Amino acid sequence: MSEEHDQIFVGLVKESWKHFNETLNNTQMDDLLVGAVITSMVEQGYVLIDLNSDGIKHFLRFEWLQTKQRVIFQLHNLAEDLLTAKVLGRKANVTIGYGEVVQNTQAVFGALRAEVKSQYLDAGEPGVITCDADLTSGYIYVQVPLILDLDQYFGANWSVNSALLQKHIYATVQALAKYLRGRLSV
Amino acid sequence: MLSFLSNFKHSQEMRESKDEILIGELVRAMSRLQAPAVGFYAGTGQQTIKFKPINDPVFNSVLLTVDRKTGGSALSQAMIGSKATVIVQAEVKNYLADPDDLIHMYKTDLANIFKIPMLGDTRLDHQ
């Protein structure tokens, strides 16, 4: 094998890496989003207390230790396929929930009643705020699904616009907190 | 529970979340060093996070593995506290493809094959 053939082979490998990295960047978008959300929340003062995944959707739970307020996330990358990402852009279905400990059980059931009664409520539609509760731990949550354009947060070469993501999460959590307190008449 | 709330272990104590708290802080610390997390891998008793150091001239990725040794149970935490080891792996990609260079590289691998890195020790591994 001559040196010339060696160089041709090296060139083919180099080109393969270029194509491979393009696909890899897209498949890593899930984890990049998970990492960016963790960074944004920890920067705001929350601690990560739960992190799990079913392989497609990723679940995160944070707590503000002093007040026990919790924020939960369900992250689902809608453009895992490179073709979809290039044609439609990178989008993710992000459900954000905000929860507080409520001692008054009557208030919890009162808040949940509307969801249980409604047959027409589609909690999958963006912007629909729903209540939910974990009665064992005494937490009541309100949650909202959103479809976020990931291109505004993640640039080329793995750069992350943390400030913008942090601002969007903060605004959503504040809106949910206001809604929850109004619902419970706190 | 009506929604994705059922995906969380609500009855777990804060003691059980110490791994996650550490992971959260590691992700933030690495992010401040311009190395966003690009991979999360959970194994039995240990969790690994892959970071991509942006614009780093040497490293392609850094892997941090959190392995909690003690504090899994309330008794263990009360007796010896929560101790975890953090294994740091740094990856350099040289994109070697020249057959002559590859043959030369295997000599280092053979020399390192039985080396087990202990506290603070390092091991060089080619893949």
Report the biggest beta sheet of chain B as strand number plus sense, adding barrel if it closes. Answer: 4 strands, antiparallel
Rg from Cα of chain A: 21 Å
**Uncertain segments of chain A:** none
Note poorly predicted spans of chain B: none
Give the termini distance of chain B in whole angstroms. 47 Å
Order of helices and strands of chain A: HHEEEHEHEEH
| Largest interface: pair, residues per side | A-B, 50 and 37 residues
Going by helix content, strand content and strand pairing, the class of chain A is alpha+beta
> Can you give the mean pLDDT of chain B?
79
Give the biggest beta sheet of chain A: 6 strands, antiparallel
How many beta-strand segments of chain B? 4
Structural key phrases:
heterodimer, A: 186 residues, alpha+beta, 6-stranded antiparallel sheet, 6 strands, 27% strand, B: 127 residues, 4-stranded antiparallel sheet, 4 strands, 28% helix
Q: How would you describe the overall organization of this protein?
A:
The complex is a heterodimer of chains A (186) and B (127). Chain A is α+β, with helices and mostly antiparallel strands and 186 residues long. Chain A has five helices and six strands. Chain A has a six-stranded antiparallel sheet with strand order 1-2-3-4-6-5. Chain A is elongated. The N and C termini of chain A lie far apart (79 Å). The mean pLDDT of chain A is 86. Chain B is an alpha+beta fold. Chain B contains three helices and four strands. A four-stranded antiparallel sheet of chain B has the order 1-2-3-4, covered by helices on one side. In chain B, a hairpin with a 3-residue loop joins strand 1 and strand 2. The relative contact order of chain B is 0.11. The model of chain B has no long low-confidence stretch (mean pLDDT 79). At the A-B interface, helix 1, helix 2, strand 1, strand 2 and strand 5 of A face helix 1 and strand 1 of B.
